[in-house]
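Appendix C reproduces, verbatim, an entry submitted by the partner laboratory led by Prof. M.T., so that reviewers can inspect both the input and the predicted structure.
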Amino acid sequence: MSGAGRLPGSRRSAVERILNGGGRGPEDGEGAGAPVPEGNPADLWSPGGSRLLYRGYAVTGVDNDGLGSLPLHDYPTTLVASEAAKGGTDGAASEPRLPNGKGAASADEPLATTSADTLPLTASDAYVGTAASTSVPALKTSPLHSLRRRWFLRAPPKPRTVYLESGDTDPPRKRLPDNAVRNTKYNALTFFPRALYEEFRMFYNLFFLAIAISQVIPALRVGYLITYIGPLAFVLTVSLAKSAFDDLMRRRRDDEVNRQLYERLGAAAHEPDDRRQVRAADIRVGDLLLLHKDQRVPADCVLLRAAPDPNGTVFLRTDQLDGETDWKLRRAAHSTQQLRTDEDLIGLRASVWAEAPRKEIYEFIGNLYLPNGVVEPLSLENTMWAGTVLASGSAVALVVYTGRETRSMMNVSQPPTKVGTLDLEVNFLSKLLFLLLFSMAFILLCFKRFGTQWFLYLVRYLLLFSSIIPISMRINLDLSKYVYKFMAEHDRHIPQATVRNSDIPEELGRLDYVLTDKTGTLTKNEMVFKKVHFGSVLFGRDSLEDLRKVALAAFAATDERSHRDVREALLAVALAHNVTPMEDAYQAASPDEVALLQFANSIGLQLLERSQSMVRLRLPTGAVATFDILVEFPFTPAAKRMGIVVRGPLEAAAIPALRKPRPIWMFVKGADSVLARMARATDWLDEECGNMAREGLRTLVYGRRLLTEAQYREFAEAYREARAQRQARAEAMAAVQTRLERDLDVMCLTGVEDMLQDGVKETLEQLRQAEFRVWMLTGDKVETARCIATSSRLVSRQQRMFTISGVDSRTLASRQLAQFKRRTNEALVVDGVTLDVMLQHFGEDFMLVAGRAPAVIACRCSPTQKGELARLIRQVLHRRVLAIGDGGNDVAMIQKANVGVGIPGREGRQASMAADFSVAQFAHLVRLLLWHGRNNYKRSARLAQFVIHRGLIIAVIQMCFSAFFYFAAISVFSGLLMVGFATVFTMLPIFSLVLDEDVSDTVALTYPELYTELRRGRSLNVRTFLTWVLKAFYSGAAIMAFAVLILYNAAFFTTANIQAVAFTALVFLEWLMVLSEIRTWHYLMIVSEALSVLFYALAILLLRDDFDQGFVWTFRFWWKTLVIVLVAWLPVEVGKRVERCVHPPRYAKVGRATAREE
């Protein structure tokens, strides 16, 4: 037995034996290879391999863990009745039973939203899932398999059935996850093991741990143990404290959510009036929750009742789920909405079947099985996902998914870890420091000459020079990032700025490319109606008065053919939408719809009321017309259209030209590329769409089809059957919808304008001066994108645009790309179809050619293409890229770019929440890059250089000390002095450099060209590293040599006094070097220097073993120390000044020019 759908191996034989009443199967010798009796096994094995269907029954419990090799007898097996053998089920859970077991309902019900959408059931369906289940004795189970299944395997999510009468669920509640929110990384047992593991994954910490452990060995001990354990313990303590604090904050946020109280209706029949408070964490599948306005939905629910709207509609705020700020309309199941009270739900002999949990937040398949033997299909509009907020009214909802099975939790994904260029450069320099460390130890060993214990001395030298590796580098850089975060978020010039990723602030100063969305990023996403074209006449915003007169005549005419096209076009605008009128505004999912409704209102066609079943309009004549909604086709990004089937108007005299019976219209609106395939050919649509697009307008085409009663009945029956399907429901509904959407008459073409954001033109001009390559990636048409590119100055007036669109062959795409390659100073415009061909066949060549263009405009660009472009810029062009957008379709490129910037706007906060940085508008990007990016990079680079210098100069002094005193492997300074030098004596002055500014913000923004030098990375590279290494070698050698020479043959010539003079000179040198590097003084710099002096003075008083009080407080000590400091510092400072005079930095030239202008 082979082929698709047949049972594999041992599982097949086991099942055959069960179905044959325990007799021998094919593998027992007789009839080997014979098919399972009474049925084709290929038809009996359900999709997914989760159970076997046989004689109308399902053998459940067969290998649901996906291992594929476990025999059937490892599971308790039962036989349950199923309709799958008759033609279709998902094979993952039993069907819900009908509570009363009645037969089929009438199949002649019309499809109308005024009554429940029902599906007839046969008598055999009435007891689906309740037929006598015959338990099959489980055979001997493997202990190893049982252990693996229980402890290590998580069963795949399954569909579930909730019985309202008893509150029971199938599968049982105990097999479904709880609803507690858990976002913590650690618990009391795992904190130290996991946190320490994460810390010691860093080579720095592992290196110093090895050094600290080595000091336990007497032969390797070169100083006090505190010298090596202290810095490591300090760094680990700070890191662990940060991790613990962050996890504690996560736990508190989780507890805050888990402790929220909700009102639960009694689920048992003997508690019909029971209402009790329940914590969010204690909510389980099958609970009936009573939700109130502004209350967060705690779990994924099906909406059963809503108030106060008798039609059962409520609004949800979904910005925390999908990032969209517009409210979403949700409708209660019609059958349960008709009940008198909420308590009538308790004990109701009905059940809800819900599909297996999945990630898609815009799709849902379910059924409500009613006591009268009918089924009401449930869809997305009947759901309330966890994390949304009830924006209006109150609701009674049935919980169907909890915890990790909710849509919000299934969509939680960790964003990719981003590492800044500066961190990579510091890591590379650290490798050079390791090389230098071994070189110094080896050189010293060579001078000492190799002996029998040469390896021991090599190790001891390595331990003495280990200060070269700056263990405090990571903590200094991490603390500086928090300072940059504070400065950006408190910059009054960029209000509402938020830093969500504090790991890459320096990356803002090293970028090459900017990828930007159009709608909501460059534009305001505030739509204003501009034009409407009826095929023969065009009306603009300045001719609305004329259109108002035409509309009045069209609705008042008694002739059926007079003004019919204009009248039905305006009705299409007023009816084909999903807008709900509020008290003083319209609530819609798209600003386009609001703009068009406002246009209709301005010509006298006013939306008064809209519910699930009807739309009421005030016509230009003043009459009120009520239209029945028969079917709605919601807008989806894939369909790029929405439609509605209406009957009406109910008032016969509202439109005199209409005759009885009431006509049935289907109105469809959508993109011109979609409607053109559905509508009859016209000689004006393409031309007018192009004209409006060239003006930068967003276009929508309206189509109409007049249906006969028979056509509608045929469609209604097919659509009802498609809606009730449990597998491939969406595909079946789309197929039925497509059959109806044909032979449309194009009624009108509308154009709305999306206004540019404030400061966009100036911002793009400054970015161009800073030599950024700006790419605009949009989903709009080519003509619209070209117009916006020109009006926003993305493409300057001196540049032309080269357009490649509609290319679907590799050969033609290659020719077009070769032709563009020969052009100079031209922007590239490419559409989504062409971009697919380019990236699929020669993506690297395309990126190399496009990367040289001053600007690139990608039109009809999908989210996947946006993310792919960001990735290719990094991998092919090896350039750093910033991506900025405001919608969920921009998240992919935001996460794949080096730096992602989000803008919270009308499309929601999804992009803002996923981004590394968030700003209120596009114009703020300039200050974020040119000012904060510059400061972050320059400051961190200088901070890293000083930390490297501080560790290196100690090692040089130690090397000279050992060389002067017979290559002894002993420490020059005591452990407390070493710890103090890296912390309280020098840390504050060095860290205060994060407040320094090399130029003012005015200069940085006035001269964007200054940004170009940052890309070259000259502030921290191998050249600057070697410069600081030379400084450290000279200064360290000077300090140690002069300390010995000055005290030689003196009364105070002891190693202790040499160490005191050298250490004091070293501390003073670090302070002096910090002071000489400051360009813009801040009061905290003075405070840090003063505190460091105070700490060192206290150390001299307290550490009497290290400082001879009789020598330290003498004039001789201080003048000798001062001489050593000047010898070590002055040549270095003079050399630095001469270098700046000979080769002044670019910002210095600009500063002098600015000073002369003032």
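Residues 608 and 617 are 5 Å apart (CA to CA). Additional entries are available on request from the coordinating office.
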